User: Which sequence fits this backbone?
């Protein structure tokens, strides 16, 4: 608890261009959580180097992502928006937690298996212990809740196991975090293959809407979205493409699938796709405008980066000192 509020932690990697899926599935919901929780939203650059990165590019993307957090509506006075690499406690706690994590547990992680298949020439130890660093992120702030996508649930599970194991030995050191599964936390699928999640690393540019796509591009991609030959706008599993478009429309408008079915009853796919495209373009426009304005205000963003790193560091150190004492590291002499 911080100031009587429960603590929330989440983070994103600054790799690839964020998609509409990241926005509707995560960022947009983060904004609504910031009144209820004391929120830490990190740009997790330590995680990014588990695969090879171009240094200048990584730095640029990290800054863009932090700027985008603000452009999406996260108030940096209320939410702690910071770079993971600016708070050394993440790496320090991660080391300690490594010593409380079993090889067998890490071997079971499906993301490790996927990523090592994808980067067979660089299966490094960091990739293997990635979930331990993630556990350190969360436990460092004594987070009560962690909003994550389905693909990260296994990492949250191991975080809880590590925390419980540590607490069983040393007493109540860590808060045991719960996943935050928001109300129908929109899971947005690829526009070209509605069986696949919309992904920032998709090779087909028509599969994903990027947050910085201009209105014409957005509308063009929706016009090309894969649907079916049924010809009716119905929210059902037999029509996964239309299902996805309805989900997107509802996430943007706040309407229900039933209302959407009624609104477009008797209309063709062309009309519906255009409506979804225009709606999405309309949702992205203000975010893009704020983003452009923020990018011109270097001093403002620098100030946020500095202040929030200090704030995060303060809370991180509180936990880290406690943990160091518990495991038997000597007191600092002052
Ligand atoms: N691994 C997460 C992802 O790729 C990002 C992440 C790192 C994270 N640390 C975290 C998410 C802590 C939630 C909490 O999506």
Assistant:
């Amino acid at each position: 608890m911080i100031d009587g509020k429960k603590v929330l932690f989440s983070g994103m990697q600054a790799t690839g261009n964020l998609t509409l899926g990241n926005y509707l599935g995560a960022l947009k919901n983060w904004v609504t959580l910031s009144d209820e929780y004391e929120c830490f939203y990190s740009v997790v650059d330590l995680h990014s180097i588990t695969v090879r990165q171009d240094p200048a590019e990584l730095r640029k993307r990290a800054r863009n992502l932090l700027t985008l957090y603000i452009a999406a509506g996260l108030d940096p006075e209320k939410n702690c928006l910071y770079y993971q690499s600016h708070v050394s406690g993440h790496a320090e706690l991660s080391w300690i937690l490594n010593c409380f994590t079993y090889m067998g547990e890490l071997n079971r992680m499906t993301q490790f298996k996927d990523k090592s298949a994808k980067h067979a020439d660089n299966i490094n130890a960091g990739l293997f212990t990635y979930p331990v660093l993630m556990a350190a992120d969360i436990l460092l702030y004594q987070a009560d809740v962690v909003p994550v996508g389905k693909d990260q649930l296994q990492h949250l599970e191991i975080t809880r196991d590590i925390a419980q194991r540590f607490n069983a030995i040393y007493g109540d050191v860590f808060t045991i975090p719960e996943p935050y599964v928001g109300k129908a936390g929109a899971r947005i699928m690829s526009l070209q293959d509605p069986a696949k999640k919309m992904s920032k690393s998709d090779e087909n540019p028509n599969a994903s809407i990027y947050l910085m796509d201009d209105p014409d591009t957005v509308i063009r991609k929706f016009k090309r979205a894969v649907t079916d030959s049924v010809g009716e706008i119905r929210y059902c599993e037999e029509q996964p493409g239309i299902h996805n478009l309805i989900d997107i429309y509802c996430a943007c408008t706040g309407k229900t699938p039933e209302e959407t079915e009624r609104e477009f009853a008797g209309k063709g796919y062309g009309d519906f796709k255009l409506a979804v495209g225009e709606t999405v373009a309309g949702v992205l426009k203000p975010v893009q405008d704020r983003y452009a304005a923020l990018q011109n205000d270097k001093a403002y963003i620098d100030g946020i980066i500095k202040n929030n790193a200090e704030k995060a560091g303060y809370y991180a150190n509180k936990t880290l000192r406690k943990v160091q004492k518990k495991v038997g590291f000597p007191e600092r002499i002052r």
